[in-house]
User: Which sequence fits this backbone?
């Protein structure tokens, strides 16, 4: 009776085995983790943060990295909030910071225009109906890994927690979050 409990206390055996690591703040996740996940992706990169702004600051030469990824056959996608949307303006009032949500989205759009036209690169805005679901959850997919930030009510993304998940099959946390991001993606409208 004691031995199985000791083993189960040390080894992940259930759905929690998908949790690679958790961080109390997105900003506590080292930029090297992001870089390694981007570099390691071969099939699919999905950046489904509402602004994705911080990526351009934290990842050196990201434009060229993404260009190489796309040229090698990796699908590169960005799902953004609409910089002119009602939810974006509501979020700006909530955050009340100098670098507004719409400005952060426009910076990402400017960076993506540097990439365009690149085969395999796509960018979409979440629909007005989905914007409230999108602004509250960021999902970043790197093949079978994901970094997920459930945004806390009045905090900007870097102050919200982050989970590093690795998919192990259907029905776990990884697939629940990535399926949600895919659903938002499918309904999205072209951004570029």
Assistant:
């Amino acid at each position: 009776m004691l031995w199985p409990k000791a083993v189960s206390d040390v080894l992940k055996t259930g759905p929690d085995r998908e949790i690679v690591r958790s961080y109390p703040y997105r900003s506590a996740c080292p930029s090297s983790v992001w870089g390694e996940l981007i570099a390691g992706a071969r099939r699919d990169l999905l950046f489904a943060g509402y602004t994705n702004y911080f990526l351009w600051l934290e990842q050196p030469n990201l434009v060229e990295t993404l260009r190489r990824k796309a040229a090698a056959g990796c699908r590169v996608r960005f799902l953004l909030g609409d910089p002119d949307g009602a939810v974006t303006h509501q979020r700006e009032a909530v955050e009340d910071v100098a670098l507004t949500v719409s400005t952060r989205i426009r910076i990402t759009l400017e960076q993506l225009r540097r990439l365009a036209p690149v085969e395999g690169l796509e960018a979409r805005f979440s629909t007005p109906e989905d914007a409230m679901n999108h602004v509250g959850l960021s999902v970043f997919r790197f093949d079978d890994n994901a970094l997920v930030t459930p945004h806390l009510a009045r905090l900007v993304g870097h102050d919200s927690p982050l989970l590093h998940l690795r998919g192990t099959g259907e029905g776990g946390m990884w697939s629940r979050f990535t399926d949600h991001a895919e659903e938002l993606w499918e309904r999205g409208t072209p951004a570029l």
